[in-house]
Amino acid sequence: MSIxxxxxxxxxxxxxxxxxxxxxxxxxxxxxxxxxxxxxRVVNSLAAGSSADHLNRAxxxxxxxxxxxxxxxxxxPGDGGNIAAMTVVKAAPDGxxxxxxxxxxxxxxxxxxxxxxxxDLRKSLLPVSAVAEIPNGLFVTPxxxxxxxxxxxxxxxxxxxxxxxxxxxxxxxxxxxxELFKKTAGVDVLHVPFKGSTAFRPExxxxxxxxxxxxxxxxxxxxxxxxxxxxxxxxxxxxxxxxSVPTAVELGVPELISVGLFSLFAPLNTxxxxxxxxxxxxxxxxxxxxxxxxxxKQGMEPGGGTPQALxxxxxxxxxxxxxxxxxxxxxxx
Length: 333
Fold this sequence. Notes:
The protein is built from eleven helices and ten strands. The protein is an alpha/beta fold. Strands 1, 2, 3, 4, 5, 6, 7, 8, 9 and 10 form a ten-stranded mixed beta sheet that branches. Helix 6 links the parallel strand 5 (164-167) and strand 6. The chain is globular.
């Protein structure tokens, strides 16, 4: 071996030894973004200023505090909740766009708008948590000389087709509650649709409309002033805001249950850990007396519960209102 070759060999070995003694530099991977790292948007299917809107904003404020991140509300009412639902269905499944909606209204759409929707409540959205119930009530014009459900039903049976039931539109929850009442009480009442519930209240007060089903909280002042009568609450239990008013179940009409069910959903394929986090924090907000007590005073019943429980509620509502639509022969033309 030549001196030059020997020298090159010793140099190579020295370089290897030096390399072994130096720290190994590995390309660092950027850490995954910790959720939530930016503003969360909750799309509300109900109009600004409604009971559901107030509920949504109270929940958003609570989530903001617990998540240490801003949570904003965006109202996208219309088309039975489908506009808001589609906004969320099309959103990225990253936990930054959520849906607050009336479970019953969206459940009705699955049958009433069957074949026309680009989403399925049961398959296109992930349940996060039930949020609250707003009980509905049966409100009657004070013009009628009746003070209880039994006497009212007797009067309706004595004049089939003579009396009217108002709603905020064909195919909505209030309309189908009228139909459910007709079926369960065995009466014939003419349905009169209006553009929104505020439109029919003067007609009801003045006696041009006989009856209507609607959210209890809005009507409490009217009942207290003697402008309307409330004959029953259509919930499983009495409304805290009207404790003296019996439920339809108590009065012998056990199938007449219709409540405003409001729930939180996320887009399909949202990571399970994000859904679990949102559920935990939403349930925590709803259990906080600072949120619960004001809502109860306004006639709402704050909820909570697991995503699985909400999924079961959705299935039940879809089946229930599909049956009412079918039996009343109601379909979208």
